Amino acid sequence: MRLMTPLAVLAGIFSASLATAEAQDYPTNPITVIVPFAAGGPTDTVTRLVAESMSKTLGQQLIVENVGGAGGTLGAARAAEAEPDGYTLLLHHIGMATSATLYRKLPYDPKTAFAPVGLVTEVPMILVSRKDFPANNLQELIAYVKEHKDEVTYANAGVGAASHLCGMLFMQAIETQMTTVPYKGTGPAMTDLLGGQVDLLCDQSTNTTGQIKGGEIKAYGVFADQRLGNLPDIPTVKEGGLDGLSFGIWHGLYAPAGTPEPIVAKLSEALKVALADPKVVERFAELGTAPVPADQATPAALQQKVLSEIDRWKPVIEKAGEYAD
Ligand code: MLT
Asked: Which residue of 75, 173, 264, 306 lies most exposed, with the fewest beta carbons within 10 A?
């Protein structure tokens, strides 16, 4: 057994107490939260609501930085490489798990590159079209897409995005491939849908509710077991004849691996406060979602979610055979 010199012991005690002191004072500077998609989309919306509330609890601004591209993997890679000091975070969704299979060589390992802080929310997906798309229900849409598959365009936010996953499952279910148009997020995709430059999009209720209620786009079905409380007139895709397509876009907050545990714990506690903030709860409800329960806003719950979802989606993606290099 190798004995440590008294100096080494002292150094160890000093560095441990320094880390504890840093964690106790944390945060002493503003914190960057990377959103791996363009501004104005659903991930951005969720992040800004949570970040505003966490800023109040932590006493430092949480500043959102949008790093879009490659279905969210560019932003995730940026966060994975950041200093593990608690001043760079990442808010990402189900793409953290699906990209593990979709990408043959990711610049980070989703299982080990991050220190999970906690789950945030789970958001339903809705199939929508530009306002004048020639279909008025899901069956008419499917018939039109099958007949005009070479002309119909489907928007997504790149391989690994929720809109990509939803499109992949939908096209597999109707056995018809459409032309996909990739964006850096479904914020800019929605802009083109509203302008009629693209035909279809499967997007989260947090980015479609307002436009649906305003009659600016058409909605055909919710990919959930039951209708949404904020959009009761939109049928589920099951009601429209497509069974087995029910999934939620869960979101998690991460720090880079190696971030001191006391800092991660402080962030998780601030996240729980934000998820109980009446302003956050009310706005989430208006947008068709809800914060996770406090016992899910924890590092263990998020790590378990990432691992179980990687296993869940691996065979589904392999069956679809859609990969990115
Ligand atoms: C976004 O925030 O732009 C969306 O999450 C993109 C997507 O995942 O479809």
From this structure: 173
Whether the predicted pLDDT of 219 surpasses 70? yes
210 pLDDT band, cuts 50/70/90, is very high
pLDDT tens digits, residue range 21-32? 778 899 999 999
Does 270 fall in a domain? yes
Which pLDDT score is estimated for 323?
A: 85
Q: Which of 204, 223, 247, 250 to mutate to test the pocket of ligand 1 (most atoms within 8 A of CB)?
A: 204
Section 5-13 average pLDDT: 80
**pLDDT at residue 27, as a whole number:** 98
pTM: 0.94
Q: For ligand 1, is residue 165 a contact (CB within 6 Å)?
A: no
Q: Do residues 219 and 128 make contact, with C-beta atoms less than 8 angstroms apart?
A: yes
Q: State which residues form the domain around 175.
A: 124-222
Instruction: Provide the domain count of the chain.
Output: 2
298 lines ligand 1 (CB under 6 A): no
For residues 139 and 170, state if they share a domain: yes
Q: What is the DSSP string of 150-203?
A: TT-EEEESSTTSHHHHHHHHHHHHTT---EEEE-SSHHHHHHHHHTTSS-EEEE
Residue 42, ligand 1, Cβ within 6 A = yes
Q: Are residues 169 and 188 in the same domain?
A: yes
CB 50 within 8 A of CB 275: yes
Mean pLDDT of the region 43-56:
98
159: domain CATH number? 3.40.190.10
For the domain that residue 86 is a member of, what is the CATH number? 3.40.190.150
Distance 92 CA to ligand 1 centre (A): 9
**Is 303 a domain residue?**
yes
Distance of CA 55 to the CA centre of its chain: 20
